[in-house]
Structures are given as C-alpha cells and as structure tokens.
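For the sake of transparency, this paper describes our internal protein records without simplification. The remainder of this section carries one protein's record, kept here as part of the documentation:
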Amino acid sequence: MDARTLMEWVCGVDSFWQVPSVIGAHAAERYRSAIARRRHHEPLQHIVGRMWFRALTLEARPGVFIARPETEMVAQYAIDEAETLARSRSQHSAGPLVIDLCTGSGAIALALATEVPTSRVYAVELMDEAYALAQLNCERLAPGRVTLVKGDATTALTELDGRVDVVVANPPYVPLADVTQPEALADPPEALYGGGEDGMVIPRGIIHRAAHLLRPSTDTDKGGLLVMEHAEKQSQQLREVALAAGFRDVRTAQDLSGADRMLIARAPLATTMPPTESLQEDE
C-alpha cells in the first residue's frame, strides 16, 4: 500500500490506475528516493505531504501529530452523538455544540464539521505548528465551519461552560517510559507524552475541563457526552477519574482492532456542578 501511494504521489495522480505504464527517469529517481526514505521509517504522510482521516484528505507536515485510523472510531462516537442531537432538534434550533480539545491538524473537528453540517464546532490547539496546520486544513476543507482557538485544552473556552453537547479529544497520553513505534517518534513529543510516569496528567485535565464544559445531566436531560482516546492500559484508571469527577454512564469503548482505547462518559448532574454565570441559554 505504501509503495502504491508513493507511486501515485510521484506521478501526481489520484489513482494507481492513472499511473502510466512507463515513467520517466526523473519520476523513477523520485520514487527510489521516496522508497529509501520510507525504508528508514520516515512516515508516509511526511513524504507525500498528506494524510487521510475518514473521508478527508488533510495536509500533513513534520512537527504535527499524524492522524491515525485508530482515532476514526473516537470521531465516530462524537459524530453519532451530534447526529442524534441534530435530528432531535427543530430546524429553528441551534445545531449541536461540539468542542475538539487538542485538535492537532484539525482532523476530528473537520470530520464533525463535514459529516454533521448543522454542528457548531470549536477546536482548541496550543502548539504553534499544529495550530497553523489546523488553520490551513480548516480553510481548505470546511471554510467558516470550525472556530479554531489557540490555547490550553485544560483551561480553554470557559465562556462555553455548561453549554456544550459533545467534548471529544485525542490528547497526549503516552506514558513517559513507553517505547513507541518508529513512525510515532517522528511526531512531536508534546503531542505524544501525557505527563507524569503514567501519561495521564493531560487526560485527567481534559476530564475535569469537560465536566465544566458539558451540558449537565438533569432529570429530563441525559447531558453532554465526553469521548476521549487513551492508551489501552489506562482504561480503568481513567474511568475512576471520570467517576470521581461526577460523570455518569462511564464506560470504555474499543477501536477498530478491538482494543480498549476510549473513554465514553455522560456529564455530571447539575446539582454536583458549581454555579457559574456562563450556564445560560444558547443564543
């Protein structure tokens, strides 16, 4: 598959069936060079300058986390929730409000914006390189559909506290001592390691931020939904963190390979949340 993708890139075509039966010397040399780079574990996405996420083709750059197929199920749970809310609301109501924390290249936010057109999507990113790439991808794939915010995902968007329908995140979560696959070492450390020996400093911060951002649960409203990717061995600990933060219906969901890779949880009850001036009706 890598060899095929590299040949398409060298020839400037979208399908292998468009590759000519004979290629020129310059293209042949580019192809040999690309194969050599891939042999040394340079990510395919960095060589061709693009990456794929669900139905999207995004620009890829060194210094920014590469979107991976494992995260597509994280996006799916968020999309399913947003679609359900969109269908249940009248056409005159505001669409579901969704926040993608630690957006990186903007992949999850753009999947939501393009697959649930009525959704109002915010995306938060701290790193300069990732923020710039997210801007480029959003302007190219969904102009005007994603509100991009530069800031810390564990403290951002306090003005939306208590109003958000879905918080979705693929935060840094790799434990410091874990050895990752060679391709992952091309990602910036800030996008990989979650802080502390267990890698859960940032994921814990995301859970507590989501507890305030999400629409609270009530007797008549099941509340907003948190969907967060994590390492397989972190599932039990993060469920405990979510329960301690007041979340309800806390569970672990699996990725495409069947591994425990994401936390799914409903917002805490309104009675357990401190009052705040931002808990107002949406405009």
In short: The chain is about 35% helix and 15% strand.
